Amino acid sequence: IVKLAHESDGIVVSNDTYRDLQNERPEWKKFIEERLLMYSFVNDKFMPPDDPLGRHGPSLDNFLRKKPVRAPGPAYGDSGPWAGSEQFAEERANVHVKLCGIFHPHLVDAVMSRFPRLLDPQRLAAEILTYKAQNPGI
C-alpha cells in the first residue's frame, strides 16, 4: 500500500502508522509522515480529521490536493509576527506526526495545544507522559 501510494504520489488511508515500514526506506518514512490519513467511524460514518497533520497542519481539503494551496506569504522585507510562521507550522506538523506514531493522537493534540510554541519532540513526549500520568482515564 505504501509503495503504491508513494509511486503514484497518492495518500495512505489507514489507522496503521506503518512503523515497521518507516525503517525500510527513508523516502517511505517521510512519505508516511506527510501523507498518512488516519480516520475513525462515528455512528457508522467515515470521519477523517479536519486537520490530518495536526492543529497547525493543512486542512483536509488542502491535504488531499496534489499541490497544496498556500496562503500568500508576507511582503518582501516584512518581518511582522507572522514571518516564518509557515516554516514553524510545517515543523510543528512533522513533530505532531512523529509523536502520533508513539502516542495516541488525542494525547498529542491535548499536550501540543497546551504548549503551542514548543517544537522539541523529547520535551513534548515528556509532557505527554506527565499529562497521561495526571489524567489516567485518558
Short description:
With 138 residues, the chain is mostly helical. Helix content is 46%, strand content 7%.
Topology at a glance:
Elements: H1 2-7, E1 12-13, H2 19-22, H3 26-35, E2 36-37, E3 40-42, E4 45-47, H4 60-63, H5 85-100, H6 105-114, H7 121-134
Parallel strand pairs: 1-2
Antiparallel strand pairs: 3-4
Spans of at least 5 consecutive residues whose pLDDT stays below 50 are 75-83
Strand order of the largest sheet: 1-2
Determine Rg (CA atoms, Å).
Answer: 16 Å
Distance between the termini: 31 Å
Shape: globular
How many helices does DSSP assign? 7
Would you list the SSEs in sequence order as H and E? HEHHEEEHHHH
- Report mean pLDDT, rounded to a whole number: 80
Please give the largest β-sheet: 2 strands, parallel
Helical amount among residues, as a percent range? 40-55%
* Percent of residues in beta strands: 5-15%
Structural class: mainly alpha
Would you report the number of β strands?
4
Describe the protein in words.
- By secondary structure, this protein is mainly alpha-helical.
- 46% of the residues lie in helices and 7% in strands.
- The chain has 7 helices and 4 strands.
- It has a two-stranded parallel ribbon with strand order 1-2. It has a two-stranded antiparallel ribbon with strand order 3-4.
- A hairpin with a 2-residue loop joins strand 3 (40-42) and strand 4.
- The two termini are 31 Å apart.
